[in-house]
Every structure is written in C-alpha cells, then in structure tokens.
Amino acid sequence: MEFSAQQIASVLGGTIEGDPEVKVNNFSKIEEGKTGTLTFLANPKYEHFIYQTEASIVLVNNDFTPAEPIKATLIKVENAYAALAILLNMVEQTKEKKAGIDSTAFIANSASVGENCYVGNFAYIGKDVKVGKNSKIYPHVYIGDHVSIGENCIVYPHVTIYEGCIVGNNCILHAGSVIGADGFGFAPEGENYKKIPQLGNVIIEDDVEIGANTTIDRAVMDSTIIRKGVKLDNLVQIAHNVEVGENTVMAAQVGIAGSTKIGRHCMFGGQAGLSGHIHIADKVVFGAQCGVISDVKKPDTLLGAPAINAKNFMRSSAIFNRLPDMYRQLGQMQREIEQLKKELNK
Question: Which listed residue, of 34, 50, 195, 297, carries a Cα 20 to 30 Å from 316's Cα?
Fold first, then answer.
C-alpha cells in the first residue's frame, strides 16, 4: 500500500515542507533510506544523515531547522518518534489476524476461553484457566492450572505461565518468557541447602510487556507484582516477592534480587543489578551495569557499582585515570617528608 505525504500528515496532524504528493510504501532507517520509504529524525546525533538520505519522507520534530538543503519531504510533528510509533501500529493492524482454536491444542474442560481468541498448535491450557476475549495464545504455550489471562493479550510461542499466576488486560508476553517459576529460596542445613517451598504467585497488571526469555519468579508467600504499564526487555530476571512500580522500564539483562520494591517511572539500563530487600523511590534512573546495594530514597540518576550519583561518578572516573600518576607522586612526597624528618632530627 502507498500513502502520500499529505495523507500521512493528516493522520499525524503534522505540517509538510516539500512535495505533499510524494508517496511511500515502506519504512527505513535514516542512514539507509531509499526512495519510496519513510524515515524519522528524533536524535540530534543522526542529523547529518538527513542531508544525505534517499528516503522520500522524513518525520521531524516541530523545532527542527535544517542547516543545509534536504531532498526529502519533511513532515513536522510534535514528537517524531511517537509519530513513527503511530504509523507502525497502523501497519501492524493491517496484518492477517490469527483466529480460531487449533485441533491439536489441549484445553481442560474446566477452562474458559473468551470470544474471538486464538489458540495455536499444541498449546496447553490447564484446569480452571480463564482467558479473556480477543487474546492470542500462540503454539506451544503452557498455561498452568488456575491461571487468569485478561482481554487483548498476546502470548507468544513457548511462554510458560505456572499455576495460579494472573495476567491483566492488553499484555504481551514474548517467546520463551517464564512467569511463576520458583523463587531462589534455599535454607542452609549443615553442608547442604534445603529448598523452601514457593507458595505465592505472580501478578502482572494491565498494559505490561515482557521480553523474550525474561523470567519472573513466584513469591514465597503472597505475590511478586509487576504493576501497570511496566515494560521489560529480553533476559530480565525478577526474583521472588519483588514489586515493580507503574510504568517502570528495564533494558536487557537487568537483575532484581528478592523482596526489593521499585517505585514508579524508574528506568534501568542494561545489566543493572539490585540487591535484595531494598526500596527504590519513584523516577530513579539507573545507568547500564549499575550495582545497587542500598535504598534509593529520592529521584536520582545513578552510575557505577556500587552505584552513586551520575555527576559524582563522572568526576570520579576522571580522577581514576590519573590514579597511577597520583600514586607515584604520593610515594615521592612520602619519601621527601621522611628525608626532611631525618634532616630535622639531626
């Protein structure tokens, strides 16, 4: 399907600079733009590509002012990245919709599957499971007994949801994610470890997205809770009895130890790690590979391990490179002081 710049601008409420009749039928990255494609510029670091791109249409922010001539037609919008998301979602909606229940799927007699659901090949749905309307259960998904899944959810292949867990509405669980496996609970007993039964569950609220191969452990008692609007990347580990606050986002390989409570609107860079039984305030930003071992009581941006304020970390990093020279200078000063002491004591 082809769309003109005029049609796209009308959908986005944007303004056009260039040819309103130019048409596109695909998307491209700005550095690899081709004729007939649409791209976007949101990060100033990529601005130099806009003067070279062969893309036919570029979405830009309203405050963008070109420093050189641009071949492409510009559509100015309030937020170019958000506008791109709108267009991508429109394209997504045109894809063929999965429907029906495959004959090879197993659905327990006591389970209920809502209207307009899709259940793929060899999916397993256990006793007393409830799946809300318009949800899609892809092939080879395992849904244990007494699980509840809300409306308009997508559960991709090889997802495992253990017994008693709850998933809200409009959630997406990507391939291989595991919800409700046992938390890592073992009590020392002599030279061995005795397993502590994990009797709780996992509660995932509405509008949550869980990345591929991410794991969320069930609680020892009560619930591990992922609040509304949380987005977790691939390979994230959430331990037992953790609570993740609303609209918090975590990049790949973040690890959260048991019983930690995380506030709302926090942001985690890749491989950040939090120790157990700590509390994190709202709106805290953790840089990549942060190591956090104590409470964070107010909004802040942290770097390093152990994590400290980002500005202090940058100042410390600058000093770190000079430590060998400083160490040699300190040694020289100590020797000179010792020599002076000897001279004074003569």
Answer: 297
